[in-house]
TrEMBL record:
Catalytic reaction annotation: L-leucine + 2-oxoglutarate = 4-methyl-2-oxopentanoate + L-glutamate; L-isoleucine + 2-oxoglutarate = (S)-3-methyl-2-oxopentanoate + L-glutamate; L-valine + 2-oxoglutarate = 3-methyl-2-oxobutanoate + L-glutamate
One Pfam family cited in the UniProt record for this chain: Aminotran_4
E.C. number(s) listed in UniProt: 2.6.1.42
Annotated InterPro entries: Aminotrans_IV, Aminotransferase-like, BCAT-like_C, BCAT-like_N, Class-IV_PLP-Dep_Aminotrnsfr
Superkingdom, taxonomy of origin: Bacteria
Keyword field: Lyase
Molecular function terms, GO-annotated: L-isoleucine-2-oxoglutarate transaminase activity; L-leucine-2-oxoglutarate transaminase activity; L-valine-2-oxoglutarate transaminase activity; lyase activity
Protein name: branched-chain-amino-acid transaminase
Matching Gene3D superfamilies: 3.30.470.10, D-amino Acid Aminotransferase, subunit A, domain 2
Pathway in which the depicted protein is active: Amino-acid biosynthesis; L-isoleucine biosynthesis; L-isoleucine from 2-oxobutanoate: step 4/4; Amino-acid biosynthesis; L-valine biosynthesis; L-valine from pyruvate: step 4/4; Amino-acid biosynthesis; L-leucine biosynthesis; L-leucine from 3-methyl-2-oxobutanoate: step 4/4
PANTHER family registered for this protein in UniProt: AMINO-ACID AMINOTRANSFERASE, AMINODEOXYCHORISMATE LYASE
Family: Belongs to the class-IV pyridoxal-phosphate-dependent aminotransferase family.
Organism: Salinivirga cyanobacteriivorans
Organism classification: Bacteria, Pseudomonadati, Bacteroidota, Bacteroidia, Bacteroidales
Coiled-coil zones: none
Length: 287
C-alpha cells in the first residue's frame, strides 16, 4: 500500500496526515467527543442521513455544538472532496471525529467544536461482503456495559470496547458478545446483533444499552418488508440455544454472521438473503 501521507480535513482545513492534531486536543486528553464510522460508494457516504441524524443527536446529548462546516449539506460535501483529493474512488472507510475545543481540564472553559475527517481506502470492495466462513464468538463477562444515556453513543472514550476486543483476541475468537447490567447480550465489540429463531427476530436496542447503530436501522427497515416478527429486547442464554442464525451488523461491513458460540453452530441463509437485498440498495443508490 502507498505510504505517502494522505489528506485529512481538520476543522475545515486540508492538511497532510502527519500534521493533523495537537497534544491539547480534548478528544485525546479526555475522550470529550463522538465519532461516526462511515462507508463510501464512489464519492458518496452510504446512508449519510442516518449518520448525520445520529451525530447531531449525540452532540446534543453531550452539549457539543455542531461545527459550521458540518451543517446542512456540509458532511456530504466534505466527504466527496475527501475522496476526490485522495482518489479513493473504489470505496473507503471514513471516520469523522467531532470534539469539544477549548482550554480547561475536565471542565472546559469554552464550548466550541472541532472535527477530524480521516479514512482508509478499500482495494476492491465496492459492496458489502457477506463472509462465507462466519465468526466464532465468546462472551465478555468481566465487565458489564452500564445502562445510561451514554450507552448508545459512539464516544471517543472507548476503553470498554478495547478491553472486550483484547479479551476475544486473547481467547482466540473473532469477536465477543457484550452484556449489560441485566446480564443480557446486547451487541459485540463492533456490531449490533440480530438473533433469528424460526420467524422471530430479536434485536437488542438502545433501551437495552446497545449502540444506536446506523446499519441496525437499515436492517430493521429490510426486516419490515418480510414476514418475520421483530422483538427489540436483550438476548439470553436460552435464546442462543434456540437460534437458527445470529447476525452482526455495522456501517462498514454491512451484515455478517456468527458461525458458532460455545458448542452451538448456526446457519446463515437468511443473513445472506438480507445482505443481497442490502447490496441491491447500494447498486440502485437507494441511500
Amino acid at each position: 500500500m502507498d505510504r505517502t501521507p494522505y489528506w485529512l480535513c481538520v476543522d475545515g482545513e486540508w492538511v497532510r496526515q502527519q500534521d493533523a492534531l495537537t497534544v491539547q486536543n480534548r478528544a485525546f486528553l479526555y475522550g470529550d467527543g463522538v465519532f461516526e464510522t462511515m462507508r463510501t460508494f464512489g464519492e458518496d457516504i452510504v446512508f449519510v442521513e442516518t449518520h448525520f441524524e445520529r451525530l447531531t443527536n449525540s452532540l446534543a446529548l453531550l452539549d457539543i455544538p455542531l461545527h459550521a462546516d458540518l451543517q446542512a449539506d456540509g458532511l456530504r460535501k466534505l466527504a466527496a472532496r475527501f475522496i476526490h483529493k485522495n482518489k479513493w474512488y473504489k470505496g473507503a472507510r471514513l471516520r469523522l471525529t467531532v470534539y469539544r475545543v477549548g482550554a480547561g481540564r475536565y471542565t472546559p472553559q469554552s464550548n466550541e467544536s472541532g472535527f477530524l475527517l480521516d479514512g482508509e481506502p478499500f482495494d476492491n470492495e465496492p459492496f458489502y461482503p457477506f463472509v462465507g466462513t462466519g465468526k466464532l464468538l465468546t462472551a465478555f463477562s468481566e465487565m458489564k456495559k452500564p445502562l445510561n444515556k451514554l450507552a448508545s453513543l459512539k464516544t471517543t472514550s472507548s476503553i470498554f470496547y478495547v478491553l472486550a476486543g483484547k479479551h476475544a483476541k486473547t481467547q482466540g475468537f473473532d469477536d465477543c458478545f457484550i452484556m449489560n447490567e441485566r446480564d443480557e447480550i446486547i451487541e459485540t465489540v463492533n456490531s449490533n446483533v440480530f438473533l433469528v429463531a424460526g420467524n422471530q427476530v430479536i434485536a437488542p436496542g438502545t433501551s437495552n444499552g446497545a449502540l444506536n447503530g446506523t446499519m441496525r436501522k437499515q436492517v430493521l427497515n429490510l426486516l419490515n418488508d418480510t414476514n418475520y416478527n421483530i422483538t427489540e429486547r436483550g438476548i439470553n442464554a436460552d435464546d442462543l440455544q434456540k437460534a437458527d442464525e445470529v447476525l452482526l451488523t455495522n456501517a462498514v461491513q454491512g451484515i455478517n454472521w456468527v458461525k458458532g458460540y460455545k458448542e452451538r453452530r448456526y446457519y446463515h441463509r437468511f443473513g445472506a438473503e438480507l445482505s443481497e437485498k442490502l447490496n441491491l440498495k447500494i447498486v440502485n443508490r437507494q441511500f
